[in-house]
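Thread amino acids onto this structure.
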């Protein structure tokens, strides 16, 4: 920030002196303007000032809506900017015949607007996983998303206009496409945030949240996939193969596939939770300390997992949205087929017994055993990752209690694909 200020001050000084020199040496307005637009040095200075003005506006917007960035946000920003710059350079090579100052300015603006979108996404993710977020943060993020959507729409209409007017392919296709993608992501982030707020208002017991979130992400992925393909074809027909798009296209497709398989797995486990997981008996509740480890509240009724651990049914459901292992002992909560259920019950349902049964069960097929070994390796990796971060994903730290002293939904530190 300090560096930008110093740089901005120097740029402004240099430009002012160039303009002053132009007017004092030419004495009249018109010749001075001719000099300013024809001199190479003046041109570079003006260009530089324009860039500085953009960066300053960006910093200002960031400061107003987001305040100081967290370390993770800065890291992500740096990482993504480099990737984006490389991709935009690829795009620029496609449109090299349209190259102009206006094009350069639009590219710079696009980069800055994109960076704001990444930050918005990251901030919403952070708010969703953080207990007791102050009201001001909510107001800020909502107004930020409205602001971003307005910016997207303005740029989108500006780049669509020449396309509609001239009816021929130009670099405006590129900007229209980029702002369409940005606008749809903003809407998707906003709706996801609305889901989060609704769930919070229902005290974390909105059972359908996972389903709605899935459909939201599915639709947004589908829209993006469609737009990417449309753009790909448009560029291919008019310019040639758009190399910079291949990675994005592949990643959108991949995320779409992972989303579907994650969801299928989640539905499989939660579809008949009542039948799949037996109710805990009064004796079992008394034998344990009758506290649900997920929400840390007392249980009067509970569901029992194969490993023998007990949880509230709604807590278990929201846990399954993110993890498919027992919150206490990390044994996988796979949909039990008949053989394995029998074996787990036979072993007296001790913690971890299901995992062991899965690996060492006599007569289990080679493929299953290999699968379980891989799963165990993953679990161990996850456990060591959790210990490195110094936080247990099973036991929420005391600061996850919000101001009312009520427990909040726990934060997930491990990837869903576990
Ligand atoms: Zn609970
Ligand atoms: Zn367990």
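Threaded sequence (418 positions):
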């Amino acid at each position: 920030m300090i560096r930008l200020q110093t740089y901005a001050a120097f740029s402004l000084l240099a430009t002012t002196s160039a303009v002053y020199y132009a007017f004092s040496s030419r004495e009249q307005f018109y010749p001075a303007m001719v000099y300013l637009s024809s001199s190479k040095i003046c041109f570079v200075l003006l260009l530089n000032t324009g860039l500085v003005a953009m960066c300053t506006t960006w910093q200002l917007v960031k400061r107003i809506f987001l305040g100081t960035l967290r370390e993770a946000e800065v890291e992500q920003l740096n990482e993504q900017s480099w990737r984006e710059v490389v991709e935009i350079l690829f795009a620029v090579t496609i449109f090299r015949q349209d190259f102009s100052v206006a094009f350069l300015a639009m590219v710079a603006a696009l980069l800055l607007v994109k960076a704001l979108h990444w930050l918005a996404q990251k901030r919403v993710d952070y708010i969703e996983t953080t207990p007791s977020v102050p009201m001001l943060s909510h107001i800020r993020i909502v107004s930020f998303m409205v602001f971003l959507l307005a910016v997207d729409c303005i740029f989108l209409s500006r780049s669509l206009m020449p396309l509609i007017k001239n009816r021929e392919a130009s670099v405006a296709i590129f900007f229209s496409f980029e702002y369409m993608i940005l606008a749809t992501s903003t809407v998707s982030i906003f709706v996801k945030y609305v889901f989060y707020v609704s769930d919070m208002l229902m005290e974390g017991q909105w059972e359908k949240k996972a389903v709605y979130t899935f459909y939201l992400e599915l639709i947004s992925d589908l829209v993006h996939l469609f737009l990417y393909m449309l753009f790909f074809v448009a560029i291919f027909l008019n310019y040639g193969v758009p190399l910079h798009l291949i990675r994005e296209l592949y990643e959108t497709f991949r995320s779409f596939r992972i989303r579907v398989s994650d969801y299928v797995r989640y539905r499989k486990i939660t579809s008949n939770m009542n039948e799949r997981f037996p109710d805990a008996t009064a004796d079992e509740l008394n034998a344990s300390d009758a506290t649900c480890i997920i929400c840390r509240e007392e249980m009067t009724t509970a569901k029992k997992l194969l490993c023998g651990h007990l949880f509230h049914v709604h807590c278990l459901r929201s846990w399954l949205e993110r993890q498919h292992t027992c919150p206490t002992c990390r044994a996988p909560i796979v949909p039990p087929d008949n053989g394995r259920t029998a074996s787990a019950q036979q072993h007296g349902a001790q913690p971890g017994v299901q995992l062991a049964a899965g690996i060492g069960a006599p007569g289990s097929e080679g493929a299953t055993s290999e699968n379980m070994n891989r799963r165990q390796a993953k679990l161990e990796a996850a456990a060591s990752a959790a210990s490195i971060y110094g936080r247990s994903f099973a036991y929420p730290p005391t600061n996850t209690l919000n101001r009312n002293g009520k427990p909040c939904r726990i934060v997930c530190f491990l990837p869903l694909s576990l």
